[in-house]
Amino acid sequence: METSSAAAFAQAQQLIPGGVNSPARAFGAVGGGPRFIDRGAGARLYDIDGEEYIDYVCSWGPLIFGHAHPRVVAAVQDACARGTSFGAPTPVETDLAARIAAMVPAVEMVRMVNSGTEATMSAVRLARGHTGRDKIIKFEGCWHGHGDSFLIKAGSSALTLGAPDSPGIPQGVADSTLTVAYNDADAVRTTARDNSGQIAAIIVEPVAGNMGTVLPRAGFLQALRQIADEEDIVLIFDEVITGFRVGPGGAQAHYGIEPDLTCLGKIVGGGLPAAAYGGKREIMQNVSPLGVKVSQAGTLSGNPLAMAAGLAQLEMLGEPGVYESLEATSAALAEGMAENLRRLDLKYAINRVGGMMCMFFTEREVVDFASVGTVDLERFNCYFWAMLERGIYLAPSQYECMFPSVVHGDAEVEETLRSHYEALKAVH
Ligand code: KE4
Prior knowledge:
- The protein is α/β, with parallel strands linked by helices.
- The chain has two domains: 4-68 and 321-426, Aspartate Aminotransferase, domain 1, CATH 3.90.1150.10; 70-317, Aspartate Aminotransferase, domain 2.
- The protein has 15 helices and 13 strands.
- The strands form three sheets. The protein has a seven-stranded mixed β-sheet, with helices on both faces. A four-stranded mixed β-sheet has the order 1-2-3-13.
- A hairpin with a 2-residue loop joins β1 and β2 (44-47).
- The two termini are 29 Å apart.
- The mean pLDDT is 97.
- It binds ligand KE4.
- The site of ligand KE4 has 21 residues, from α4 and α5.
- Ligand KE4 is lined by residues 22, 24, 60, 115-117, 120, 143-145, 156-157, 205, 209-210, 238, 240-241, 265, 275, 400.
C-alpha cells in the first residue's frame, strides 16, 4: 500500500524541483523517497503516516534541544503575538547579539542574516572589501552554503548528489576560489605564498561536518592562524555547524584558536531562519552603513521570532549541566557504536567532537576528502534503510553528521544502539 509520504512526494515533485526545497532532503543518494513529516516532539519525529523515529538530523543541526521545546515554543508564540516582522530594529536583536558576543570568543560585533549561506557569503565579501583582495582559500569537502564562491569541490548535498562543482558559476568567480585538501597545512602555506598579496580570506569549517565529521589534525588550525597573520589574510571560521554544538564557545573555544570572522547559523536561530557573521570590531566596522560600506542587507534579517527562538536556545545552553549532558549522550552513542562494531568484527571509522559525529563505511582513518572517498556507499545506503526501518532517522547521506540533542536520553541511546547492531548485522 502506497504510503502517504510517497503520495505527498509525487505531488510535491509536480511543483517543486525534486519535490524538496533543499536537495539534501531528497533521498537522492540512498534511493526511495523522503518521509513527509507531521510533527516533532523532543528527540522524536512523526511522519504523516504516523511512523515514529528517533531523530539524528535535528533539522541538520539547529535543534540542540530537540523538537518543540516548550521554552522555544513559548518564546516564539509570545513574539508572534506582538507581530511577525517590523523592518525596524528591536531590542531582542541586541539581546541576541550580546549573547553571541558573550559566548563566542572572537566575536566583538555581529550582524544577523537569514541563513548560513548569507553569513558565509557576507563574511567573504567583507574580507574582500576589508583587504581589497579577490581570492579565497577553501577546503575540499567543506560546505559553506550555496554562494557562488563556494561551489567548487563542495561537500554536503553537492558531494552527495555527485556535483561538487556546480554548473552556473562564472569562470571569474571560480578562478578566485583556490581549493586545498583539508588538514594539509603545507598546501595552504604554499598556496598562500604563491598568491601572496592576492588572498582576502581562508574560510574553513574548524571541524568539517559536510563530508561526515572530520576533525582538524593537531596543529592544523594553529597553522591557518599563523599563515593568515603572515600574509594579512582574514581567517574565517565557518561555525554554522560547530557553533554552540562542540561547546558553548564553538570550535574556536574548543581548540583555542581565534579567527578574524566567525559564521554562525542553525542553533543560533533555534530552528527558525536566522544566522550571523561577526568578529573583530576593526573588520566589522566596514559593514554598511559603516566604514568602506561593504554592502549586505535583508528584509527579514534579525526577525523578532527567529531572534526569540535563538535567544531561548542560547539562554538554555548557559544553564548548568547542559553540555555535560550532551557530551555524555554523544559519547555513549559513539562508544556503543564502537562496541557493536567490535562484536561484529567490523573496523569502520567513527569520528566525533561534542554533539557531532559520523560512522564511515571504511576502515581507513578519515581525515580529508580523499579518505572519505574510500567509503562503501552501497553499504551505507543499505544501512541507512535498515536504520530507518527500525525507527532511527539518519541523514540520507554518508557525507553528513549525526546530531544528538540535549533531550536525547538513555532510552534513545539504548534503542539506537540496539537498532544499530541489528542494522549492521543485516547489511553484512
Ligand atoms: P544554510 O544556508 O543551509 O542555512 O547554511 C549553509 C551552511 C554553511 N556552513 C556550513 C558548515 C553548513 O553545514 C551549512 C549548511 N549545512 C547543510 C547540511 N550539512 C544544510 C542542509 C541543507 O543544505 O539542506
